[in-house]
Each structure stands twice: as structure tokens, then as C-alpha cells.
Amino acid sequence: MPRDFYDVLGVGRDANKAELKTAFRKLARELHPDVNDHDPEAEEKFKAAAEAYEVLSDPERRRAYDAYGHEGLRGAGAGAGAAGGFTSVEDIFQAFFGGGFGFETRRGPMRGQDLIHTVEITAVEAMLGAKIAIPSHEGEREIELPPGIQPGTQFALRGHGMPGANGGPPGDLVVAVQVVVPSELDEEQRELAEKLAETIEPRNLRGSQGGEESFFSRVRRAFG
Description:
alpha+beta; 224 residues; three-stranded mixed β-sheet; single chain; two-stranded antiparallel ribbon; disordered C terminus
């Protein structure tokens, strides 16, 4: 059974033309095969979105669809539009977008998308440094975080993201570091933290950027 056109575009049944256009443009950018070649169904999903937009953006066809569903479109030329009347995705883009949507189809090499992997480390690991395992397309890879790494730090493993299209280079794997500050300390842990806080000097509190409070400042304040 064909999917509901409103569900395909991800809009409500009361969506106006501007909302329909915005929803279709968003889907088109996400599903175009040139930028989504890792999904073998992307082209079919794109054609389904184009057909839904073609019908719902036409007031007469939309009224027939709202009243009778897909059955109401039979004989009304619904199948001769975006999904059925063009030979390629590029034809659909040319017909619907032209230059109006600010989207240019690209046939040449395209760089693959970056992937983001977030890792959590403890405050102690952030201070002393740590070795962590990162998944990549070549299998698990171990990397070493330097002592004093700051929360929110990001670094990239070049070429470990999504593969490129049409001979383009792969994207990067971006590793984002989050630091977990311990809570619910027992008495011994708190004493150790207080001793650490007493010995921390301004030179230890490097890493603050743009006036933001550094990680070590937050640790000292939390344990003080």
C-alpha cells in the first residue's frame, strides 16, 4: 500500500505551500543519491518525496487526494509527474528546483560526509591522559589522549568518515571528548580531592579560551 504523502514529507495535513516546499527541499538535500550513496534506497525515497510534493503542491490534486486518497488520483495524471515522467533524479531536480532552491546537482567527485563519535572520560583520565578505543571502518583503533585534555576538545581521524561519491575522498571521523566529573564521593575520595585542590596553582589551570572557565577550575570549585 502506498505511503501517505503527508507522512512521506513529514508534514501535517494542514501544511501550507511554504511548509511543503521547505519539507521537500530538506528531504531532497538529505536523499539525493550523490550525497547519500551509502543508502541504496535513497533514490527511491527521493522519487517518493518528489511525487508527494508534486501532488500536495497542486491544489486540485491535493483536494482529490485529501478526499479519496491515492484512489482519487487515478486518471488525474498523478503518475505522469515527478516520479514517473522523468528518467533520472537530475531531471527531477531540474524540473522542481532549477535555480530557485539554491541547490545545484553535482556530477563530479564529492567528499564523503564526516562522522562524529563522542567519547566520555573521567576527570582523572582528563588530567593524566588516557588510551581509548575508537571504532572506524578499518575496525577498532586505539588512540592516546594527552594529559590535561579539555572537555569539548575535538580532533579528526582523516579519511575515516563516509566514503566519497564519484571518486571523491572520504570524510573524516571527528572524535569529541566529554569529561565526566565524579559525584557522590566517599570520605576518602573527598579528602584526596581536597588535597589536590589545595595544590593546584594558576599554571595548572591553562586551557581556558575566550574567557570561559577552564576544566581544572571547575574541578577545583566542585571539590573545594
